[in-house]
Amino acid sequence: MLILSLVALFQSMARKKKVEKTAPQELFRWWNIAIILAAITAYALSLEKIGFLINTFLFMCLLLKVVEPQTWKTAIIGGLITTLAANLVFNVVFRTQIPKGIFGF
Amino acid sequence: MGVFNDLFFGFHIALQPMNLLYCFFGVLVGTLVGVLPGVGPAAALSLLLPMTFYVPPVSTIILLAGIAYGAMYGGSTTSILVNIPGEAASVVTCLDGYQMARKGRAGPALGIAAFGSFIAGTITIFFLIFLAPTLANFALKFGPPEYFTLMVLGLSIMVYLARGSIVNALIMVCFGLILGTVGLDPMTGSPRFVYKIITLMDGVGLIQVVIGLFGVSEVLINVETIFKQEIFETKVKGLLPTREDWRRSLGPIGRGSVIGFFLGIIPGMSVVIPTFVSYAIEKRLSKYPEKFGTGMIEAVAGPESANNAASTGTLVPMLSLGIPTGAATALLLGALMIHGLRPGPLLIKESPEVFWGLVASLYVGNAMLLVLNLPLIGLWVKILKIPYHFLFSIILLLCIIGSYITNNNPYDVIIMVVFGLVGYLMKKFNYEAAPLVLALVLGPMMERAFQRSLLLSEGGFGIFFTRPISASFLILALLILLSPLLLRKRRLREDLRAGD
Lengths: 105, 500
What we know:
The complex is a heterodimer. Chain A has helices at about 1-20, 30-50, 50-65, 70-95. By secondary structure, chain A is mainly α. Chain A has a domain at about 50-105. Chain A is built from four helices and no strands. Helix content of chain A is about 70%, strand content about 0%. The termini of chain A are far apart. By secondary structure, chain B is an all-alpha fold. Chain B has one domain (about 1-230, about 240-500). Chain B contains 22 helices and two strands. Chain B has helices at about 1-15, 15-35, 40-50, 55-80, 90-100, 105-140, 145-160, 165-180, 205-225, 245-265, 270-285, 300-315, 315-320, 325-340, 345-350, 350-385, 390-405, 410-430, 435-455, 465, 470-485, 490-500; strands at about 185, 190. A two-stranded antiparallel sheet of chain B has the order 1-2. In chain B, α4 packs across α5, α4 (about 55-80) packs antiparallel against α12 and α5 packs antiparallel against α12 (about 300-315). In chain B, about 55% of the residues are buried. Chains A and B meet through α1, α2, α3 and α4 of A and α8, α9, α17, α18 and α19 of B.
């Protein structure tokens, strides 16, 4: 079955090449995508060391500040509110086990 | 009177306070998801799925099903008021619904959409009650070869109905099947495509893939360009449709329900195509087809009923055969399996509380939605005004948490990121995600059925062709896949897409 699906894959890729069309590339903000992907990766890798609260706060600040630039005030307050809300929902209501990290919270 | 006893039993379960609460929460989230463009029911289901590990199975399925059909209500609100379809299933509603709103008839449009959905929901639950157990009894005769070929047929139909090119959909199915083989071989236990990465031993997680494909990638698409939000102020008054509106809408609602339900059963139809079919039929039957597109109430009532009916219809194969037909039901099925239930023809007999509880909760949920939607329309429109930079940050956070707490494994988040990127590229190059998800779910099931059939036949492939039911499934699948090549015309598909 695996071989069959691989054959089908290559066959269709070959067919696809014939009808290839080029999409006009407009100016697009690729760096936003890179930042978001990098931020999520960093979040995931550091989650068990730094802990949920600090990590979430930093993550939200970064997203709010960089991707669609806000003032520092909006970013920090927004980060704080979402962190506390997420903590309430996941740790208090659903009692999921999200790691606490080295600082103990 | 067995059915009524069972139904009574179902209501007994659905009306327990906790289940009522979950049902309410489900339809509330569903409506919210329906209102917000960029967050579909599939993403919402996969985000909430990990949070239901601590919840009993019946409540889980009630909650998740509530999201799926709640989204159908929410989508219509934004289509009518601001001409932005919250979901693909409400695209058709924009055509006449928004025109009605511009003529000052937003109230009746919203009203008939909600009532139509409600009526469709209640009618189709009856179909579900009678059809699902019958189908399940029939499916008891199926052995592994029949199951395998049935799933092949399901995937073929899915490919045939894909919105993009058939080749792209076929690639997606193959990609999904290959992803489904990652992990330990179910029969021999030997690791495949694992590369000594422990996270991959269990296979590629469905939840992470779906969150990546439907959640993260949608955000990426949106942040790539400057997101414009234009909200038009519309006054909503007089939600109750007039007697004249009712007279014109009853036919479309009835037809929409029947069409939606039966098309919803077919794999790959999902909830979008039935709305187009319903619109086309209403246009053809109408005495004034030229007026469609200028605010005809029939064109709102029909499709809105059809999408709700279809979301009930998709439950039929999932509950009676254990075979999902789209991304949303694939996740529902995943939820059942996580809770240790065995989906398949025996589900209704083995866990009647799940089936009848769900059926009864559909009634309850539809009634809740009616109450919830009509007075709260103002609130939903306000939610649309939340700036997108807050929205997407919160969505991303939920994506991360959702994929992390499935196994408490940070590397699951990395899988999600990878599929976020993959999904983003797929969207850019017109590949649909739904066939991939379906294939990923069906892949391991197909493999098990395949290996069991070969055990039965002691290694001979003839078993798939000599058993009558399985042979006819295969022939059908082949015909479906080859028909576009043979016919060249693809009239049906074109018609469906044009909605005409």
